[in-house]
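Extended Data, panel c. Modelled sequence:
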Amino acid sequence: MSIGVLALVALVPIVLALILMVGLRWPATKAMPISWLSCAVAAVAVWKLPVAYVAALSLQGVVTAIGILIIVFGALLILYTLQNSGGMETIQYGFQDISRDRRIQVLIIGYMFAAFIEGAAGFGTPAALAAPLLLSLGFPPLCAAVMCLVFNSFPVTFGAVGTPVVLGLKYLTGLVNNAVASAIPGLNFHSMESFNMTVGKWASLMHVPMIFILPIFMLGFMTRFFGENKKWSEGFAAWKFCIFSAVAFTVPYLITAFLVGPEFPSLIGGLVGLGITIYGAKKGFCVPKETWNFGPRSSWDDDWVGSVCADEDCVFKAHMSQFRAWIPYVLIGAILVVTRIPSLGLKGLLVAPSIDFKGILGFETVNASIKYLYLPGTIPFILVAILTIGIHKMSGERVSAAWKEAIGKMKNPAIALFFSVAIVSIFRGSGISDAALNPNGYLSMPLALADAVSKLAGQTWPMFASFVGGLGSYITGSNTVSDLLFAEFQWGVASSLSLPHQIIVAAQSVGGAMGNMVCIHNIVAACAVVGLSGMEGAILRRTIWPFLLYGACVGIVATLFSFVFFPGLF
């Protein structure tokens, strides 16, 4: 069967999910089981995979989904613990002293704070933390989720202390070493480590235009679709503060990417940028003269509001000192940093304990594990939630209420994630090299899709390379896994079309980052923490536009780097 036909078949589950959620407005709890069924049928009928093997891959996905759900539960528990302790209202009260302008608040929390958390933890953690914080300040839940999902893009290539680059490109090691030994022209690196450094430099430069464009665009988007007057111009009016914030992030971000490596650009950029941005907001530097706010609750559309919402009047009072209220978030950030840097020794201790599922249904290649201590949901989220009981002096009644609320919100995201992650497992496992399991020796479903697209694109490939990375994140829910899936393919395309390998691979990694905007896993998780379970399609209809804008911008930059600038520069 031709690659083109295989690609069309592989496209069916993806298109079906889009049609059901975006077109027909089905919740993910209904759309994803049907999408999974279409994927399983394709695997058995077209790829000729054994039914038992497809079942094993699906169970592998369920185990992986449990890990994601632990993160979601931990984020919910932090939210409800702070709400019941009075800490969240104290934080809200404190933000009034920084700025009452919603445009400034979303830049500080969704843009800067989330970038720092992404740099430290990754794996969907930023939206799970930042969106509830915006919600509690009085943002419509739908707006909070959309803004945080979109902003969780430019830091992701270097998220979780560089995991998408350091781990995501590991399958290129042999190809890189062979290229170095063969002295292929245009390769200005001498080892896998220096290749990662080079890719990180090009990727950081590809992100830069959107680091400046995205906040301006999204503030206009916010005031146009969630504002009382429905005007883009109200958001664009804060362009000076957007530029100020972007510079505050970009300078340390680029310095770190060029001088240190791919592990810390987002973490350092987010931390330094957050401090500078808060200081600037307090001093009124570049802040618009007129304060912007959402209209009254009565004017909000029905689909903006879920089962969790801030009080109408948004009048807050302090129940404790700001220092004590912020201690849980400070602990989260500190614990994430010290447990994600290998040289500090704690990472190894947390990664080692795991619940392993080996040889699922008798298939040796189908394994899964839950590293329960290394998941952000466990350490630091649940740990900090427990510590907060004493720090905020909570009564047993309030603690019980927080845990009950968090557990009660888990049903819908669990259903959606079990099926969506099962699709990922089938996608990845469909290209197994075992002739007994894959008798036709077909490429995996995502590789068949990518191969067909690359043949159509030809020399224009740099314009589209990032969208393959985005597709990988949409399918798998991870920039790291997208790179693991497609980095070898991108290298092969670069070789066959005589394009600079480091630039095409960098575009892949940038694309995997921008794919976080439309990734079903992240959308389901964000919906869960702001009380919008079942509204995944409404979010996807809004995040698809900044995703396309991001991809177009990266495509232009990657094309310029490939054909205009000297690719061996770095």
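Residues 430 and 444 are 5 Å apart (CA to CA). This feature is highlighted in the accompanying rendering.
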